[in-house]
């Protein structure tokens, strides 16, 4: 039997950190993420994007996040997308260390995730980062190793893309 709030450990080239997931609040999103973890689908994943104030000059609303997953190109390990669980529905918000699903349109989140660096209310439902106002699907919180997330955030980048990406060596359900 799984714990009520499962914990996953990320091991990266820059260190490890732990994340508590919230299946009661965001069951579809957590279920999707855990399927990737259990099936080893993140074995080719990396943190490949960092969004900082210095690399989003055309955005009317600045955010600070690091993004990881299988990348933006089609990938054989990617599963079909899941229904969008908005923050007004789940009660979760984008605060420092929150893990959330990357997406283009509502209902397109599949393998890409990001972590907030600092509080990011513009990513919540009604926030101004996306024109559709639907925000992103938050589904967990880093509980250990925030310094590793910040180290990834500070890595060299070309535009918003880390150069080089930071490999994710393992994502393990504890």
Give a structural overview.
Its EC number is 5.2.1.8. This is peptidylprolyl isomerase. The protein has 174 residues and is an alpha+beta fold. It has one domain: Cyclophilin. It contains three helices and nine strands. An eight-stranded antiparallel β-barrel has the order 1-2-7-5-6-4-3-9. The longest helix is centred in the N-terminal third of the chain and has 12 residues. The two termini are 13 Å apart. The model has no long low-confidence stretch (mean pLDDT 95).
Tally of distinct domains: 1
**Shape descriptor:** globular
The biggest beta sheet reads: 8 strands, antiparallel, barrel
Oligomer class: single chain
As a percent range, the share of strand residues is: 25-35%
Enzyme class: isomerase
Biased composition (Basic and acidic residues): 81-97
Protein name: peptidylprolyl isomerase
Domain PPIase cyclophilin-type: 4-174
């Amino acid at each position: 039997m799984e714990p009520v709030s499962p914990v996953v450990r990320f091991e990266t080239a820059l260190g490890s950190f732990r994340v508590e997931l919230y299946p009661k609040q965001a069951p579809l999103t957590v279920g999707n993420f855990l399927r990737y973890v259990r099936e080893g689908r993140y074995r080719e994943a990396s943190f490949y994007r960092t969004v900082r104030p210095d690399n989003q000059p055309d955005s009317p609303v600045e955010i600070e996040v690091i993004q990881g997953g299988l990348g933006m190109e089609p990938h054989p390990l990617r599963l079909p997308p899941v229904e969008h669980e908005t923050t007004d529905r789940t009660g979760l918000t984008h605060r420092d260390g929150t893990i959330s699903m990357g997406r283009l349109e509502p209902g397109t989140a599949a393998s890409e995730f990001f972590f907030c660096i600092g509080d990011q209310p513009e990513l919540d439902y009604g926030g101004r980062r996306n024109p559709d106002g639907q925000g992103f699907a938050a589904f967990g919180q880093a509980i250990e190793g925030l310094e590793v997330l910040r180290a990834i955030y500070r890595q060299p980048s070309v535009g918003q893309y880390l150069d080089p990406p930071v490999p994710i060596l393992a994502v393990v359900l504890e």
